[in-house]
Write a structure and sequence with these properties.
five-stranded antiparallel beta sheet; mainly beta; single chain; globular
Length: 270
């Protein structure tokens, strides 16, 4: 997405195979042979490199069979011209990253086991290393609030954020508070996007405040589910930010009405 002449523009990019058909930016023959596709999660930019967690999704069952980390050293070029290095991040089934952020020392990831967020971190000093192995260099926040090697779901601290597929964290220095935005799935299906605050990204978090209800043309249709809640800092001011979400559904209607899956945007005051 870019701003051109004062207008917000969403630009899709894709690769083209030998038959001239479109294929995803993150694609390979190895993935095809395994019956998998990549589903990107929230990226982070660090010293000119872009890092994107990629869920390994089974084409038939849509089960998550692990997570990789894409390292891209030319992110300002068109996505179909990116130089992409794929690094293993997690071999665990059924969980995936739902959010990420940076501080001076670490890249942090939030994960989603059973729809309750947990946290891991990777040292920033290693992100650009030639032999960076994120799966071996990852630490998780344990129930006793210690950072321990690896990713052990059963021993991880639950952060109380019930987000199924995506959230965004933003620090407000003037308020000395973290803001988190996500589609709340506490009741099993989300009715809208909420925000919460905390002095720490690891909680405790305030009560959820509904900032946007999924009462739209698409969300009212039977069988359609809306989810995620991403803040876009590049279009934010001191007191306002832009938030996006998407909808999806399981029938073939998605192939005839692509507007169902087109990202939706709205502004919200902080």
């Amino acid at each position: 997405s870019v701003c051109k002449d004062g207008e917000f523009v969403f630009e899709p990019h894709w690769l083209v195979d030998r038959q001239g058909d479109a294929k995803p930016i993150f694609d390979s023959q190895k993935l095809d042979d395994l019956g998998l596709i990549y589903w990107p999660a929230q990226p982070v930019l660090h010293e000119g490199q872009l890092f994107i967690p990629l869920m390994r999704m089974n084409r038939k069952t849509w089960g998550i069979e692990g997570t990789d980390l894409a390292r891209i050293d030319n992110p300002t070029d068109r996505p179909d011209q990116w130089r992409i290095e794929i690094l293993p991040l997690s071999s665990l089934w059924g969980i995936h990253p739902i959010g990420s952020w940076l501080d001076d020392d670490y890249l942090y990831l939030m994960w989603n086991p059973k729809w309750n967020a947990i946290a891991t971190r990777l040292p920033i000093s290693r992100l650009q290393a030639a032999h960076f192995k994120p799966e071996r260099e990852q630490f998780y926040l344990s129930q006793d609030e210690q950072w321990k090697p690896g990713l052990v779901v059963e021993d991880s601290k639950l952060l109380g954020l019930v987000a199924n597929s995506g959230l965004t964290l933003k620090y407000q220095p003037d308020l000395q508070q973290w803001f988190v935005t996500y589609a709340d799935f506490t009741d099993g299906i989300s009715q809208g996007i909420v925000t919460r605050t905390s002095p720490s990204p690891f909680g405790p978090w305030s009560e959820a405040k509904l900032i946007y209800s999924f009462d739209t043309e698409y969300a009212r249709r039977p069988g359609i589910m809306c989810y995620t809640g991403f803040m876009h800092d590049q279009y934010s001011s001191a007191n306002q930010t832009l938030v996006s979400y998407v909808c999806n559904e399981e029938s073939e209607e998605l192939f005839t009405d692509m507007g169902i899956y087109f990202p939706q945007f709205f502004a919200v005051s902080l």
